[in-house]
Design a protein that fits this description.
four-stranded parallel beta sheet, single chain, alpha/beta, disordered N terminus
């Protein structure tokens, strides 16, 4: 065999190397539980599929290198602030070793966990995608396989956000909510277009956020926060006991869900005096939206009373994001002025 020219392959009949081998991404799949890995005909419970999810998708062996780890194997109703901290710390610790992360999670509380990771990570530069299923992977007819496959492909792309991948859509995690318990289209992000749509092609949204500051992780959450949904006839005096607890039982924050863009009763059973007493006791009150749209406390007389009482407008945040952001703020910023500034900062696209 003669000498090869400079820059050419010296082998007469070289074997073509697949492009995926040259740029194969490393992915860490973290399992926390949920329907996707459960088994049982009438009562779903954690099953053996939890340890074999990737084995169900052998075609992706040449697409990406996927490592898996079981952090939890529980119903998502048992996942909360303590588990969010562990999950965020795990991703932060492994961040330099992987190009992206998939979190397998139950659907019921998935938007809360997605919001928690969105606020825990500042300057996120790699995709973190949560997914799950309405029917377990072991079922003959299921949505689990598609959601997993979609997540694997998405996590190899330049989407440095926390998102929820479900039914052919990637939604911004801190704008997502569960909308259906019986359909495969289980999630939506009202007022925020999907980050990606998966059809024959993958269409990425132009609003995908890119990091502007160095990465850091602060996975602290204060569980002494609760939500109060304003309803017709609500009697504020029934809530007064919430303001009296001390010590470990002391309430640190309230997410208030008023009517419309921020109105509350003023003539009969007014809510504003309760809000004022809460803020005077050092309890932060964050106003979130029970519908879709931006909270505007300056619009009506029955919403201005909340500003006067010391409440903080929450932009376009719905319950899930508002509750978790307030938990994160109370745990991270002991200075009240800094805490209020943080609550009005658009951290991860949750506000607008």
């Amino acid at each position: 065999m003669g000498h090869s020219k400079s820059g050419t392959c010296p082998i007469a009949n070289p074997i073509e190397i697949p492009k995926t081998c040259k740029t194969m991404k490393k992915i860490l799949l973290l399992h926390t539980g949920g329907t996707i890995g459960m088994s049982g005909e009438s009562h779903l419970e954690p099953g053996h599929y939890a340890s074999a999810l990737i084995e169900q998708l052998p075609e992706y062996a040449g697409f990406a290198r996927i490592d898996s780890r079981i952090l939890y194997n529980v119903d998502s109703s048992d996942l909360g602030p303590n588990q969010w901290t562990t999950l965020a710390q795990t991703i932060a610790n492994e961040r330099s070793q992987y190009d992206g992360f998939i979190v397998v999670h139950g659907t019921d509380t998935m938007p809360y966990t997605a919001a928690a990771l969105s606020f825990a990570f500042v300057g996120l530069d790699k995709p973190v995608i949560l997914t799950g299923a309405q029917r377990p992977l072991g079922a003959l007819r299921n949505d689990a396989r598609r959601n997993l496959a979609d997540s694997i492909e998405l996590v190899t792309l330049d989407i440095p956000e926390v998102g929820i991948c479900f039914d052919g859509l990637l939604l911004r995690g801190c704008r997502s909510c569960k909308i259906n318990t019986r359909a495969y289209h289980a999630f939506d992000s009202p007022g925020c277009e999907p980050l990606a749509k998966l059809g024959v092609d993958i269409t990425l949204g132009k609003h995908i956020r890119k990091p502007t500051v160095p990465f850091r992780c602060c996975p602290k959450f204060d569980a002494n926060v609760m939500a109060i949904h304003v309803t017709p006839g609500l009697r504020p005096h029934a809530l007064e006991y919430l303001l009296e607890a001390e010590g470990d039982r002391r309430l640190d924050g309230i997410v208030l869900l008023p009517f419309g863009i921020g109105t509350v009763p003023c003539a009969e059973n007014p809510i504003a005096p309760f809000v004022r007493r809460a803020t005077e006791r050092g309890i932060d009150v964050l106003v979130a939206n029970a519908a879709t749209g931006r909270i505007d406390l300056e619009r009506y007389e029955n919403s201005q009373v909340l500003i006067e009482a010391g409440a903080i407008p929450g932009g376009e945040m719905r319950l899930e994001a508002a509750l978790v952001k307030l938990m994160h703020a109370c745990a991270t910023y002991p200075n009240r002025a800094e805490r209020h500034e943080y609550l009005q900062w658009n951290v991860a696209g949750e506000m607008e």
